[in-house]
Task: structure prediction
Amino acid sequence: MKLPRTAAVVVGTTGVVCAAISRSSTHPAFRELVTGGFSAQNLTADMPRAATVLLDAFKSLGSIYLSEHVMPVYGLLLPSALLLAWGLGDTRLADWLRARHHRGNRGAVLLSIVAFALALSAHYLVIGRRQPVGDEFCYMFQADVLAAGKLVVPSPPAAESFHCWSLINNGGWYAKVTVGWPALLALGKLVRTQALIGPLCCALTIPVIFSIGKIVANRCSGLLAALFLPLSPMFVLHGATDFPHSAAVLFGCLFIYALIVTVVRNAWLAAIGAGICSAFLLHVRPGDGTATFIGSLPLMVHGFVVSRERRSLLKKLGVLAAIFGMGIGALLCVNWIQNGDPFLSGYRLYDPEDVWGFGVNDHTRSTTRGRYTSEGLSTAQARVMPRSTL
Result:
């Protein structure tokens, strides 16, 4: 191994260790529930000195956040990971993996098993049998609706007695969320394995990340990238819940991998797979699906520019975009069936101020008036209750 690469491995390993040590003893402010007191929920429309509040919060917490969160992750861990990937790319270990390519594949499979075991253990041992938190309940509710073969069920008698978080109850009874993640939960519910869906998404993400790293760099880099996933508590714990983040990560990574294969190998099957994954991601988390597709456009353009078979690649990218467009069409159809308007999402029907970007909505109002209180909840739900019940 050449000296520069040896130094990169040493420096990269040292950086990872320093990042771990730095993050192991952080200030508790960002782990406590009272942190919400420093958030924008206190900046109401009638706040006369919003700038003063923001400045005071930054003075008290800004240095802590920069030194104990930003610096360890972006100043130490990320550069160290890149150094390790580059340093290990031309070593005896890399040569050994290239000569025995199945070893790298087995490593990815082993990491998948570890990730599945960790997420499933966290589901039962860490999360436990607690009540669903926040939007978990509405995802589970919609999964029950889909498992019954419907997008909407009729509101129950005395509908005003069945107000519930993030559920629309205006003659039809359904969740405000899109149907992608509830559909996966419904599949698990039908075979009585709903608790396995999140851990399975975690496990399947590992070989996808490994494959992306293998194509972009080498097997060592892919294995290193895959190793970081089960080492992340958030990756494991999200897979242990009924939130959709693990599925969004899986289908986002599948889309990126299939798109890279499409561009590099000019493969029809990969193009179709990329289109399906991007379309389904729209139904899991619409914001993630939109951002991921838009973010991939430079890769498509670059691949087309450098391709020797531009016409063939353009056809494949066209099919990919067409399938993504069909996903948008399906999303509009679901909106029309549920909300009566293809351009009205369940989020906006439940709360007209729940939009993308920055602004004042029920998530950022005072705790005495926001959606997290019974008054705020009643206000939000009154918008989606039939007039005859108000």
The first strand starts at residue 153 and ends at 154. The chain has 15 helices and three strands. Residues 358-390 have pLDDT under 50 and may be disordered. The CA atoms of residues 121 and 145 lie 28 Å apart.
